[in-house]
Amino acid sequence: MNRKITKENPYKICFVCLGNICRSPTAEGVFQHLVNERGLQSYFFVDSAGTSAYHIGEPANSKSQWVANQKGVQLHSKARRFERADLDDFDLVLAMDHENLRNIQQLNGKIPSSERVKLLREYDPNPEDKAVPDPYYGGMDGFQRVFDVIKRSSESLLDELEEWIEK
Ligand code: 4NP
């Protein structure tokens, strides 16, 4: 982290997966929910995107929405593709798995700073694995597991970032 977070200069985070319909919309919704719970809305801008164009314009997957809603989290995303300009625009870009991370890094033609582009599970206090597994072709249990991993990773991420807020 290299700067204070203020209302004048909110911290911009983009969560990225492949389709932008399952994992990254869940991360966007969960992180925004935590920000709202802590009354920190003025200090963060939260977004998500996908490395593929498969689902552009679509809302979050219905299973992702169902699992999130059970926990009181709403998913409002509309799928968009992650673009090269996002690498300059966001303070932090968090990929769900290694393939997403590689695809983001290749956009720039060079490896962007590892401080700004990394895996979400770098923040997981209990990382059996470094990737958030793709739930798309599996059952409800996979979506549940994705939610749990994202929730605890997002909590520890926000704990860390909160230290940098200047009120
Ligand atoms: P996501 O899941 O990357 O978490 O949004 C997927 C969504 C769609 C596909 C794969 C993964 N797909 O192959 O269409």
- How many domains? The number is 1
Task: Give average pLDDT, whole number.
Answer: 96
CATH architecture: 3-Layer(aba) Sandwich
Largest sheet: 4 strands, parallel
Taking all Cα atoms into account, the compactness measure Rg is 15 Å
Q: What global shape is seen? A: globular
Distance between the termini: 17 Å
Name every ligand kind in the structure. 4-nitrophenyl phosphate
In the CATH scheme, what's the topology name? Answer: Rossmann fold
Number of helices: 5
Q: Care to count the β-strands?
A: 4
Strand content: 5-15%
Supply the CATH class.
Alpha Beta
- Look at the structure and name the CATH superfamily: Response regulator
Which terms summarize this structure?
Rossmann fold, 167 residues, 4-stranded parallel β-sheet, alpha/beta, binds 4-nitrophenyl phosphate, 5 helices
Q: What does this protein structure show overall?
A:
- The model has no long low-confidence stretch (mean pLDDT 96).
- The chain has one domain: Rossmann fold (3-Layer(aba) Sandwich), CATH 3.40.50.2300.
- It has helices at residues 23-37, 62-70, 84-89, 98-107, 140-162, and strands spanning 11-17, 44-50, 92-95, 117-119.
- With 167 residues, the protein is α/β, with parallel strands linked by helices.
- 38% of the residues lie in helices and 13% in strands.
- It has a four-stranded parallel sheet with strand order 2-1-3-4, sandwiched between helices.
- Helix 4 (98-107) links the parallel strand 3 (92-95) and strand 4 (117-119).
- It contains five helices and four strands.
